[in-house]
Amino acid sequence: MCELAGPALLAEGHGTSPTCPPMRIDRLASARQHAVMRRTFDASLAFLTVSALVVGCAPGAETPGPAPEDVVTPPVDATIAPDLAPAADASPAPGPFDAPGQEATVVAFDGRHVFFTGADNQRTVETTASFPDTGSYAKITLYLTLTCPDGGCDAWDRRGAISLVAPVPGPDGPRDVSIELLRFITPFGVGLSASQDLTDLRPLLRGEVRLRTFIDTWVGPGSPYGAGWRVTAIFIFEGGAPSRLPIAVIPLHTERAGPYGDPAQPPEATAPPITVALPEGASSAAIRALITGHGQGNADNCAEFCARDHTLTVAPADVAFPAVAHTRRVWRDDCPTTAAPDQRGTWRYPRAGWCPGALVEPWTVDLPAAALPSRTLTVAYAPEPWVNTCRPDASPCSGCVFDTGCAYNDSSHTQPFHQVSTLLIAYR
Known about the structure:
about 0% helix, mainly beta, five-stranded antiparallel sheet
C-alpha cells in the first residue's frame, strides 16, 4: 500500500510521497506473517474450533493471507455464547423482539484515535456499549465517521472494521471471537462519513456487548505520512417492525484472510465448509458475506485489481435435495461516484469488492422457506479457481505485471488474498 514510481500506478495505496515509507523491522515480523482466526461451527452441537493467532506485518502493506506452517487448529470443545446460537428447542414465541422497541442512540466510539508508532500500538481499540435488550426495530443504522487527528490522516488506504467481540470458553480459558459487523477502507489522506443498515443483525446488537474497531494503519503521531485516524461510530435504533424479523445470527466464517492462487494453500483450508442447524421458529434465512480482494503485482494483478467469481453453496442435510450454488462477481467499479471525494492516489480505480474511502457492501444470499427443506445446512465458500504464476515457488515464474520477479517485496508485489467473513441470519 505505497506509491509506485512510474506510469503504472496500480498500487493499493499511495499518498504524496513517490516512494514507500521505511519498513519497520523492530518489534514486527515480515509481511509474510499474518493474523488469522479459523473457525468451524455446528450450531446443533455448539462446538467451536479456533486456530492459534499469529500476528505480524509491515507498514505500507496489508496483512496478507496465512501460510500453512503458521496455522494450528487443535479442536476446542467450547460452547458459544447462547445469545449467538439459540438452543434448538427454543420456543418461537414469545421472544425478546416481538414488541416494537423504544428509539435509541448508542455512541460506541467517539473520536477514538487509531494509530501505530511502534512503541504504542493502537491499531485495535475496544469499548463496551449497551444496546436495547428487548424490542424490534424497523431500522438499525451504523454511522461511521473518520476524521484526521493532529498531524493529518493516514496517507494510505487501509482496511478497517467494526466488530462485536464474544467470549468463547476453552480448555485454556476464554478466547475472544470477533464477529465483523461492518468493513471499510479508509480514504487516501482525507476524512469519511458513511452509514450502513444493520437491521438484520439485531440479535447481536442486544444488551451490553464489547465492540472493537480496527484499522490496518502503520502510522501515528510524529510520522511524516499522517497520524492515523479518529473513529466515531454511532448506532441509531428506529422503533417499529422490520420487514422480516431476525431471531438469530450465527457466525459461519469469522473474518479471515484466505491466500489466493497458491495450490499449497487452497481456499477450503482457510474457510472450510460449515454445518449449521437452524433454530426453531426460523421460517427463512440469509447468508451475509463480506468479501474483498487484496494484494498486487501478481499474475492478472490479483487479488486487488482482478475481478473474480465467488460462490456460496448451500447443501441441505437431506440428500434428496440438491445443493444450490450462489455465485457473484466481486468487483467494484463505482468508486468515482460512491467513495469519499477529493482523495489523493488511485481511489477512482475499480477493485475487488471495495473502494478507498467507502464501506464494503455486504453480499446477501436469501434462503426462503422453499430453499430450506432441511433444518440442517452445510455452507461452503469458494473463489474462482486460479493459479498465480507470479509467486515465490512458481516454476517457471511468469506473469508478474510490474516485472518484479516472483518474490514478494511488501510493496509493489504482495501476496494475493481474499478477506472473507460470513454470517447466517435466521428470520421468523
